[in-house]
Amino acid sequence: MPDYFNEMFDGSNVRMPYRGLDDWSTEMPLELRNLKQSEAEALFRRIGITFAVYGEGGSPDRLIPFDMFPRVFGAEEWRRLEAGIKQRARALNAFLVDVYGRGEIVKAGRIPAKLVYCNEAYETAVVGFTPPKGVYSQIVGIDLVRTGPDEFFVLEDNCRTPSGVSYMLENREIMMRMFPHLFQALRVAPVENYPALLKRTFASLAPAKCEGEPRIAILTPGHFNSAYYEHSFLADMMGVELVEGKDLFVEGEYCWMRTTEGPKRVDVIYRRLDDDFIDPLCFRPDSMLGVPGLMNVYRSGGVNICSAPGAGVADDKAIYTYVPDMVRFYLGEEPMLNNVPTWQCAREDDCKYVLDNLPDLVVKEVHGSGGYGMLVGPKSSKEQIAAFADKIRADPDNYIAQPTLALSTVPTFVDEGVAPRHVDLRPYCLVGETVELVPGGLTRVALTEGSLVVNSSQGGGVKDTWVMAE
Amino acid sequence: MLSRTAENLFWTARYIERAETNARLLEVGARNSLIPNTGGGYRNEWESVLQAGGTAGGFAEKYGDMVQRNVETWMFFDRDNPSSVASCIEQARENGRIVRTALTSQVWDALNSASQDIREFARTERSKLSVSDLVDWTLRTCALIRGASQSTQLRNDGYDFTNLGHCLERADSTARLLDVKYWVLLPQVAFVGSGLDNYQWRTILRSMSAHRAFNWAYGGEITPRKIVDFLVLNRASPRSLLTSVEGAADHLDRLARAYGRATPAQTAVRGMLGELAEATVDDVFDEGLHEFLTRMILDTSRLSGVIYETYLSGDAR
């Protein structure tokens, strides 16, 4: 068993950022804790922040379990993380500008051409077009894990439309409502200006033909989508319209929304649906969710679509390996955040190593997400491993493998009291005219003892994430 | 605002009002069935209620016989009945969820709690739920949702569309509740003016929470003429047809001012308002109460259609 880094306790000493939380948690009587827990659940249910898991059936009104024990970063820890996250977000956007333009990084031989241009996520429809200010990915969600005081690893990048930020904001709201004295006593940096920053980010990226204040709208697949709550929450917090494809239409050189007063022009669309569904004339012809003709308007500067169609090529798991190279190539800096060592089954040597060492590795599908279709070697039976090996042999290009990381733990309320549970972190970096990061993010926690899978679809929960002010 | 949002607000209000109408109809049925059967023979309190509510066909298909308990289930719980209280509350909540951003948290809270209560009722043993409790709950819940809306929503166009929904649905509801009398007395003209007749009129008033108000406004004996005047033509009566249509006209006027242009919707409402403002009780009875009410229900739905085409369909230019 590897030695896990406990973020709160260094032996019996409480680490600096967690000072004040030890007494709070040990002195809280069980009845009070249960009371607070049910209060929190009632609050979540009342605001309607629920989610549905695709493919699992069940109630679309399910709650993600919320753990009241916060996850805390010290100011200094955060400063280093912040610099690394912003650096990575800048590099990813520079990469996107490059590969849809001159392709210098490929010409320089730093990334294989096949990996970029034959990638499923590479969007030929936008080759040669540069979106406003060269920003493809306005919201970069970088999934991080920690293995030691100064060791952070990037698990994956999310350049399209990373979800979960509503939990970051609501978790904080609920913690402040339930434990105001903690916030009085400790100096927790606020996250509540995220929606304002997001709006400013979009406003700074108005399309070429927009004059005056741009009108922003969030495009949602509709209220049956599992993240609908988040879409409506963000629209509400930013004070922008929440639209579905059928609310928009293209006429002349612009995109319009149908209002009670007649058509109103829309300048910036924050879309929460996949590229495939944006425009049936350009992508999937059977999509009912998008807006016919939208891509033409986009390419002629009549509207901006965020994230930019085609941004997905940067967060592909096969491209991921090259992000540190991107940082060096475009920014001329050394990467501050490390990748997890990754074996590409597409490479013969790597594939052999992976197949020989399956019991120690985590194997993922290149395009998979949500914790589906993966193998956690140390937690799997011989039969499961053998079955998975066959899948890899059948289609090696489809798999990557990583060592099982010793994910850090944070104290978590469990039936028996407080116990360490493994966590990860998703901060949301905003890229517009400037690059911004609110001090916080979404901490996901694997609630089952010993489990390393934090996905909400696999029994994970969430925690409020605190960053201590200087 | 987005046409779809306006449409959802409009329908959220209509569903709330419709849930309330169904609860009131349920009360009329339950009270009418308490009258001792002295006339002998034909009893049709429940059928009349279903006829007036417009769901008699669906009920007959599903249950057949007119058994009180089945009617209660049909009108309150049954999801197969699109007008049942449960269906309406769930629809209102779903419409509200879609336009969550256009609602204040108080309104959303009220809608969401209502739907949670409904689910709780569905899990509760039926013998523990009395009709009068269910009716009370519905009236209270609808009042809470409306009150939250009145006291917290921004007075913008969304507010006008919400209230248009309330006004139109209420006009429809009053016409239908009043029409119960036509159905209940249909087979025996000799009953008109009898003790049973008066009792039924009084029930109609009671179902609209208006029996005390009626006494204050008119005093003396309850007569069909006074009741029709009160529920159709009296501006002071909060649920009268005139009051409801006047409310719709006010909100359409506000929209015309805010948007800087009048539409066929304003013309349509003015037509209805003009007729109601000038009508007398004699006019109503000359036409025939049932015929008059049927026409009002049609006019209301036509007005709703014009509002849809003008503002809600998204085809406005």
From TrEMBL, chain A:
Circularly permuted ATP-grasp type domain span: 70-446
Superkingdom, taxonomy of origin: Bacteria
InterPro entries for the chain: ATP-dep_Glu-Cys_Ligase-2, CP_ATPgrasp_2, UCP005522
Pfam families: CP_ATPgrasp_2
Protein name per its UniProtKB record: Circularly permuted type 2 ATP-grasp protein
Annotated source species: Mesobaculum littorinae
UniProtKB/TrEMBL annotation, chain B:
Domain DUF403 stretches: 1-312
Domain of life: Bacteria
PANTHER family referenced in this protein's UniProt entry, alphabetically: BLR5612 PROTEIN, SLL1039 PROTEIN
Protein name in UniProt: Alpha-E domain-containing protein
